[in-house]
Each structure stands twice: as structure tokens, then as C-alpha cells.
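Please check these two lines:
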Amino acid sequence: MEEQRLTVPTPDHKNVLSRPSLMRVYQYLANSNISLTYSPGTEFVRLTGVPLDMQQILLSMGEEWCRYYVSDTYRPYIASAF
């Protein structure tokens, strides 16, 4: 994150952290408005609410973190549940 000059806001959003703890990054991700939408009877799965700054942070952390924020990850699980 530091190399790419990415930041995470403090909990009160008054400042930013250029070297946040992993706990703060997790809190930031958990407090977002990410939504997973599935249309029954189809394989349509849509993931919304992942802001650009969060996408950049996830990309900087590596592919393993990104897979949880891609709708294709959930398609096989949802389709088999119905």
C-alpha cells in the first residue's frame, strides 16, 4: 500500500492511514456496503458496492484477497443451493 500511496481512513474519517494495521483494513472492508445479488433460476450473480479505493487496496494485497470480491467466486455455490 505504501509503495502505491494508498490510504485507509481512520474510523472517524478525519485522517488517513498510510500504514494501517491489518485489523483496520479488515474493519474498513467489513464496514462497506458490499452487496451480492442472485437472481433465482439463473446463474446471474452481481457484486456491487466495492469502491475504487477499496479495489486498489485489495489489488495491492494480492490475488488471494481479491477473489472474495469477485462475483464469479460465488456463482457455483449459489447456483448449487437452489
